[in-house]
């Protein structure tokens, strides 16, 4: 069976490609710059093209039984009006191009985010049946998911993977947090009371393959660990695993000064539960934060 991956040259993609290859699938991955080919794991075949534009890559996408869409400009940059446009357009336009060539009977595994529910839902427990938020990222996620769901009209099965904060050893949020901890400057962001919906990269990959293989599953799925913690508990666990202090709080105003509007994402939180994955029988290998961090940071004490 052939898997076609768009957006596979970033942080999540190579892990997911490795998982599909290990399961015996043939994997073709879209690459927009030749220098990004090196990001692909051995065994994946590069296909050149731009996911935002039509091209010969769409024939390969059309002949694939499993299509994975991870395309999107990274959100960790200052949100100028032009950058916000890029965040939206890379997701909406790439998804439109991918959906336009989906084959009948294919499954589309489309990235989205728990940001769908809004940056801050306070103490509310959020599942896939909860309504959307109304901030910038929540609106982008809604539009992104609508584009993906149009695949159903082409006879495809569409799964929306609402990722929480993906924890991996070689990128994403965890990599960014390691330097301050190394310098002994780790600590909670703002009050630290906000919920921190995280997922181990290994469970993300296993859950994506699970959805690909379970032909009855479709619609939204929260990709978050059942053992959700508050941000200050996450930071404490990280300090324990690294054996570094985690006591220096970063005040909210400093975050706002440095990151502008993006700071709301660090200061708010969503208490998301992976209700539909659990109902479907998916078993998390890393449901709790401490063992997840132990696994991810093994051998990385300073
Ligand atoms: N990582 C997380 O914690 C997290 C959480 C929630 C949701 N998500 C979503 O999950 C998806 C994958 O996440 P990730 O962390 O792997 O993201 P990433 O490392 O930023 O990679 C994103 C991918 O999108 C491609 N891309 C970026 N800008 C593009 C553009 N202008 N035109 C075409 N392609 C472009 C990149 O291609 P190049 O390699 O060529 O730049 C890369 O393959 C993203 O859509 C992200 O929003 C991630």
Instruction: Tell me the CATH superfamily of the domain at 2-170 and 198-225 and 271-284.
Output: NAD(P)-binding Rossmann-like Domain
Ions, cofactors and other ligands present here are: NADP nicotinamide-adenine-dinucleotide phosphate
Question: In the CATH classification, which architecture of the domain at 2-170 and 198-225 and 271-284 applies?
Answer: 3-Layer(aba) Sandwich
Helix content: 25-40%
- The top-level CATH class of the domain at 2-170 and 198-225 and 271-284 is Alpha Beta
Question: Which segments are poorly predicted (pLDDT under 50) over 5 or more consecutive residues?
Answer: none
Number of strands: 13
Cross-sheet strand order for the largest sheet:
3-2-1-4-5-7-11
Strand content: 15-25%
General form: globular
Q: In CATH terms, what is the fold-level topology of the domain at 2-170 and 198-225 and 271-284?
A: Rossmann fold
Q: Which key terms come to mind for this protein?
A:
302 residues; alpha/beta; Rossmann fold; seven-stranded parallel sheet; two-stranded parallel ribbon; 37% helix; globular; binds NADP nicotinamide-adenine-dinucleotide phosphate
List the helices and strands and how they pair.
Layout: E1 2-6, H1 12-22, E2 26-31, E3 45-48, H2 57-62, E4 66-69, H3 81-99, E5 107-113, E6 125-126, H4 136-149, E7 157-163, E8 165-168, H5 172-182, E9 195-196, E10 198-200, H6 201-213, E11 219-223, E12 229-230, H7 231-242, H8 252-259, H9 263-267, E13 271-272, H10 275-279, H11 289-296
Parallel strand pairs: 1-2, 1-4, 2-3, 4-5, 5-7, 6-13, 7-11, 8-10
Antiparallel strand pairs: 9-12
